[in-house]
Design brief:
about 130 residues, mainly alpha, 5 helices, elongated
Length: about 130
């Protein structure tokens, strides 16, 4: 099988996304939600959004690694990467509004946007 031109970009970004999703799943807002006696509404909303974003990143990472060298999967990876960018923006805004650390929220939003964009670009190369 011939190596597709975007395979490296998709594989690398998918691996980062998988690790990021696993790390983000243990993010402090989720821990606050679980450990708090009576969690605030902000903590609940932030925890739910962070949990959904983490799960989507884990699924996207696995999907990207599995389909990184398959032309048939390239279009689906492009769509999934676009979905992850939108989800990262929503998650970042919710964390900025309700989270304690603005610096962490901004860093997470930047990484959450950049990594799926790299995945998107690699999958777009594979589609062409």
């Amino acid at each position: 099988m011939e190596k597709l031109p975007g395979k490296g970009m998709v594989t690398a970004s998918s691996l980062i996304m998988l690790i990021w999703g696993l790390v983000n799943a243990g993010y402090y807002d989720i821990a606050k939600l679980v450990l708090a006696d009576e969690p605030s509404t902000k903590a609940v909303v932030c925890g739910v959004v962070a949990g959904i974003a983490s799960l989507a990143a884990i699924i996207g990472g696995i999907f990207g690694i599995a389909g990184s060298n398959k032309v048939a999967k390239a279009s689906a990876i492009v769509v999934w990467a676009a979905f992850l960018v939108i989800l990262a923006i929503i998650s970042g805004i919710v964390t900025l509004v309700s989270g304690d650390s603005k610096l962490i929220a901004v860093a997470m939003m930047i990484v959450g946007i950049v990594v799926p964009v790299v995945m998107f670009m690699g999958a777009a190369k594979n589609r062409a």
